[in-house]
TrEMBL record:
The chain crosses the membrane at residues 20-40, 60-84, 111-136, 151-170, 177-198, 248-269. It comes from Gelidibacter algens. This is ABC-2 family transporter. Keywords: Membrane, Transmembrane, Transmembrane helix. PANTHER family: INTEGRAL MEMBRANE PROTEIN-RELATED, MEMBRANE PROTEIN. GO terms for molecular function: ABC-type transporter activity. GO terms for cellular component: plasma membrane. It comes from the Bacteria. The keyword Transmembrane applies.
Length: 274
């Protein structure tokens, strides 16, 4: 595994565009944490400091940071599809296979790299959130600090699932730009499926079906935290209560799609004449 990851890292780090995108994909999520230090002066009447609003308290900080950080995954998605596009355009995929790398090892090298970068991103977000939380949070009990850290697991699974989808699209069309366009087409397709399901069944069943689709299932891993923030400030607003927890079956659905995407990527490579 380490040999395969090292092989991919060498390719990525020799490419200037990939290095820049990797750097951006790791730095931008920390803008969420930088928000904690922002002070907004309203014409001298009062100063609003986001960190003092309680949104960086434990345990809600795990929810907030992972939710917003997940929106920056598109930058590394470009790296993932570029890994495949460059292999075909530079003919390195054929050379790797000639040099003794099996097709299974080729796909695994991409997948292991995805897991490596997803794990690294998760660790960095965990460390950043922990430090900001210690500074701003009024809770210092370990039981509270480390509660809801399952959002970190959801963040990791979400990244691995999304990048595996990008890997499949990269293998399918062999071009980075077209692969990213397929993400948009999949988003539209899922809403079309939802609309048809509403017509055929009902609204409740339509949402249940949509929740099993790739992009929607990945989004559901970390629900939006806005209502939760409002509820924490105004507990009497019980009408805003909703289920924001990370559920095991949501993780299983995304892991299932991840396995499907990796398998399909391997099948495409195995059947394709290089």
């Amino acid at each position: 595994m380490l040999r395969l990851v090292n092989l991919e890292l060498q390719k990525l780090l020799l490419n200037r565009a990939s290095k820049v995108l990797i750097f951006i994909s790791f730095i931008l999520p920390f803008t969420v944490l930088i928000l904690s230090s922002i002070k907004i002066n309203f014409f001298g009447f009062f100063t609003l400091e986001l960190g003092e609003l309680g949104i960086f308290n434990f345990p809600i900080i795990w929810h907030i940071t992972t939710f917003f950080a997940s929106y920056f995954k598109l930058f590394f998605a470009i790296v993932v599809v570029s890994m495949i596009g460059n292999e075909y355009s530079n003919k390195t995929i054929k050379q790797n296979l000639i040099d003794g790398l099996s097709k299974k090892e080729f796909i695994l090298s991409k997948f292991y790299t995805i897991v490596f970068f997803s794990l690294l991103a998760t660790v960095l977000i965990a460390i950043g959130s922990f430090c900001i939380g210690l500074y701003y949070s009024s809770y210092t009990e370990a039981s509270i600090i480390f509660s809801e850290t399952e959002f970190l697991l959801a963040y990791f699974v979400k990244l691995v699932g999304f990048f595996s989808l990008c890997l499949f699209f990269g293998m399918l069309v062999k071009r980075s730009a077209f692969a990213l366009a397929f993400l948009f087409l999949l988003y539209i397709f899922e809403w079309i499926v939802f609309g048809v399901a509403v017509k055929v069944f009902n609204l409740d069943m339509a949402w249940k079906i949509k929740n099993f689709l790739p992009l929607e299932s990945m989004y559901n891993l970390i629900n939006q935290p806005f209502q939760r923030v409002v509820m924490s400030k105004y507990p009497e607003k019980i009408d805003m209560a909703y289920d924001y927890a990370v559920h095991w079956y949501e993780l299983v659905i995304v892991l299932g799609w991840t396995a499907v995407f990796i398998f399909l990527s391997y099948r495409l490579l195995k059947q394709r004449d290089l």
